[in-house]
């Protein structure tokens, strides 16, 4: 089901050189759940797949921006559609999104990731900072701001971050496009030494949540 209101999704066939990342849309169904309004609600009862897991092939990427990131978002959306490793693009409807603030957009996109509707999210605002801060409020989501190749690589390989936030006011468009192209080629290795540290972050998140519940 297409995300309601804000988000539209597009499936696309991977290009000839895409193996082993060719999409397998039919089994299991990857586009489940529906999304409502600025504060989106995940109606998926069962995750299509674990957050950040890419075993099903080509990446499904949600992309969003506030007004300050709109120009880059348009260009990067085109790049995503054309990229051989991207199997689907979910983008906020430009009309409504241009009025949306970065916390709303980031939270909504991060929810798409957390619920398994998207593998990753690409967010653009003026600095990339607020988007990452807001996206990190969604449990299970790891969002970073990164404006150089090493950080983009480490975001995936070391931190298993599913969300990349860029600042339209910080880097030039061509660097942003290059970084996104690089970002799409990286896959987290769950057998790597980084995995235990990412698990530790998840455990901390659970502990914090229990602590807060105890206080409530
Ligand atoms: O960069 C932003 C948030 O980190 C955003 O694009 C601009 O922030 P605002 O001026 O507070 O809306």
From TrEMBL:
Protein name in UniProt: D-erythrulose 4-phosphate isomerase
Biological pathway: Carbohydrate metabolism; D-threitol degradation; Carbohydrate metabolism; erythritol degradation
Gene Ontology BP term (one): carbohydrate utilization
TM region positions: none
Enzyme class, UniProt record, top EC level: isomerase
InterPro entries in UniProt: RpiB_LacA_LacB, RpiB_LacA_LacB_sf, SPI_LacAB/RpiB
Stretch list, region Disordered: 1-30
E.C. numbers: 5.3.1.34
Catalytic reaction annotation: D-erythrulose 4-phosphate = D-erythrose 4-phosphate
GO function term, MF aspect, one: intramolecular oxidoreductase activity, interconverting aldoses and ketoses
The keyword RNA-binding is assigned to this record: no
Domain of life: Bacteria
Family from the record: Belongs to the LacAB/RpiB family.
Keywords, in A-Z order: Isomerase
């Amino acid at each position: 089901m297409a995300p309601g209101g804000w988000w539209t999704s597009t499936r696309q066939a991977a290009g000839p050189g895409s193996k082993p990342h060719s999409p397998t849309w039919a089994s299991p169904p990857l586009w489940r759940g529906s999304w409502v309004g600025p504060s989106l609600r995940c109606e998926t009862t069962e995750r299509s797949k674990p957050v950040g897991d890419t075993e099903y092939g080509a990446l499904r990427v949600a992309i969003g921006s506030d007004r300050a990131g709109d120009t880059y978002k348009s260009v990067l959306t085109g790049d995503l559609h054309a990229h051989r490793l991207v199997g689907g693009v979910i983008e906020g409807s430009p009309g409504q999104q241009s009025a949306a603030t970065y916390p709303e957009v980031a939270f909504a996109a991060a929810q798409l990731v957390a619920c398994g509707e998207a593998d990753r999210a690409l967010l653009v605002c003026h600095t990339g900072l607020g988007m990452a801060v807001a996206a990190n409020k969604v449990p299970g989501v790891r969002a970073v701001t990164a404006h150089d190749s090493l950080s983009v690589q480490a975001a995936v390989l070391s931190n298993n971050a599913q969300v990349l936030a860029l600042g339209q006011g910080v880097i030039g468009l061509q660097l942003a496009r290059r970084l996104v192209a690089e970002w799409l080629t990286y896959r987290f290795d769950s057998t790597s030494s980084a995995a235990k540290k990412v698990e530790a972050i998840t455990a901390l998140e659970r502990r914090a949540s229990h602590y807060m519940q105890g206080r409530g």
